[in-house]
Amino acid sequence: NGLIGPNVSGKTTTIKLSLGLIRADSGSAKLFGLDCWQQSLQVRQKIGVLYEKVAYYDHLTGLEHLILTAKLKGAPNPVDESKKVLKLVELEQSAYNRKIKGYSAGMRQRIGLAHALLGDPELVFLDEPTSNLDPLGRAKVIEIINVLKKEQGISFLVSSHILPELEQVCEHVILMHKGKAVREGALQQLLGEVSPNTFMIKAEPAEPLIKLLKA
Asked: What span, in angstroms and rounded, lies between the C-alpha atoms of 107 and 89?
């Protein structure tokens, strides 16, 4: 599934509500039949998350970083668990024992994705997972997500403002605007509902084009 909308449309806020990091002004958010605020600990045990902006322990190696996190999560075999998720995100073994400060943007993103996969979560949130990556890096992340969906059966909720990327990883989307879900349904169905008098322009990122059209 995917959340799509321009910046400040409420995508990240929706993820924070789901994680129990903030409380809804009204109503409630539930996952797995659990209240995301009142039962946030139980909810977080079932999910993983890759934030758009991630702070890493740059002085640690990629493997050390994950082992530390796995220990904090109570993994019975943190080393084995860390190596397993590194293999899933296809980080080359030669990088396992290199310090993160020497990683490329794409390698750092794979560490973030591996971090989200620790503990075998039932659902993984990805907030703008390809931001700050070059085209090759974006394509690789999309490829890894699709492999994880197909071969590992992992469910993802992907937040993005880049429609072509969501088309590659999502079948069902929620369109966000000004903090509200304004449309929901199968992605291809929503695209098919576009008026014949409407021009659809694909651009990534979309914000510069939007500003140009408003000028």
From this structure: 10
Q: How many CB atoms lie within 10 A of CB 43?
A: 22
CA proximity to 94, closest of 130, 133, 61, 129: 61
| 113 three-state secondary structure | helix
Nearest of 197, 178, 175 to residue 187 by alpha carbon? 175
| CA R_g for the chain | 18
**3 state DSSP class of 193:** coil
Give how many domains the chain has, as a whole number.
1
Q: pLDDT per residue over 135-194, tens digit each? A: 888 888 899 999 999 988 889 999 888 777 888 888 888 888 888 888 888 877 776 665
Domain assignment present for 173:
yes
